[in-house]
Amino acid sequence: MSLKKSSGPKQSSAALLQRRIALLGLGVENRALARFLHAHQIPFAVCDARAPATPVEGVQQWRIGDRYLDDLTDFDLLFRTPGLPTLDARLCAARRCGVEVSSQTRLFFQLCPAPVLGITGTKGKGTTTALLHALLATDRSARVFSGGNIGRPPLEFLDELQPTDRVVLELSSFQLQDLDQSPHIAVVLSVAEDHLDYHADRAEYVAAKRPICRYQTPSDILVINRDCPTARDFAAESPAARWAFSTTAPSAPGAWVAAGQLWACCPGAQPTAIGPVADIPLRGQHNWSNVAAAVAGALAFGAPATHFAAAIYSFAGLPHRLECVAERAGVTYYNDSLATTVDATCAAIRAFDAPLLLIAGGACKGADFSALGPAIAAAKVRAVLLIGQEARRIAAAIRQAGAGEIVHDCRELPQALDTARHLAQAGDVVLLSPACASFDQFANYAERGDLFKRLVRTPRFV
Asked: Which residues of 153-179 are buried (b: 16+ CB within 10 A; e: fewer)?
């Protein structure tokens, strides 16, 4: 399938030489941007609250300190780090004075010579992106590059790209909210709520994701989760051709689950059975949805389905996403540390038939735990071991659902695991699926998951 470009002629990085540029914050993305600008001999300044711990080449000017965002009018192009809200009052003041506010992701779209497939949603983006890359890689007719929120800033591979390549990007609300171009193919997974410590409310969070398809053209493709009402609403934002995926109903063109099989269909073609969903190595119906999304996206990008089954059934998944860590004395331990939302933890609970000992809790993101209590009460959860700042609120939701007797206040992860070890019986599953961010006790979700794995794999943990 040949995709036309969604926008006019691509900009050149040389045009940046005429701008007074500042990078606002030096996170992972803006460090990649700094390396890109330095490699292209483009001068830039850095504004941040703190000086970096490691050197940054090419910086022409530093603005360090608590007031680094005050009066930005001596620049005419600002690149914000994703953690800095685009609606920050100081950025809004700069815009009113004619300063352009951009991002590393937006610059990539402006410069990228190859067609782009973008994936967004509340959870499942990383798994879908990685699997979609694997499906596209079965087609040797084009090179595949992937990055974005999954960990590799796309500016790191921009200079390698040719027009015949394919690019797959995982895109968060932080990265999407100031885009003025959309991917040629947009894939919208389930959209619930997240990051309410950053966004004003759920409506603003959902609105921040809508640029994934808002600027598409009729020659583009929008792939939506048919099972999610919010995702279906995104279709009103785009004139693109509409594809879909589902675990509950046929969705042609696209991919779906029916009669225990994964199906796929291109426009005007007959449906093709990829294989049985029971053989998919990823646990849970939510992962069947992720697989269907990846299949639909790969078909929309023009890859033939010939070798999809082999790629799907050999896909091992990503760390910290229902990751099987070990079996100890007949008890199996799963690390789902990336489950930082209530919806993700509810999906993880539903993925198991065995009795569960759930470790949950962590830092506040403004989440509503009212749905978590009933999900726990309705499942085979024998104990809930709570840690972190949100332990009290989660406990209250569980008590409200009538299951307060299974709650244990453990404060920290090592204590929770030790309690689980003493309570668990052969055949049980101990599941770390926090429904919360990690920042109260850890640097990030990966550090939390790595500690869980390290403790479980300790020889004396028997």
From this structure: bbbebbeebeeebbbbbbbbbbbbbbb
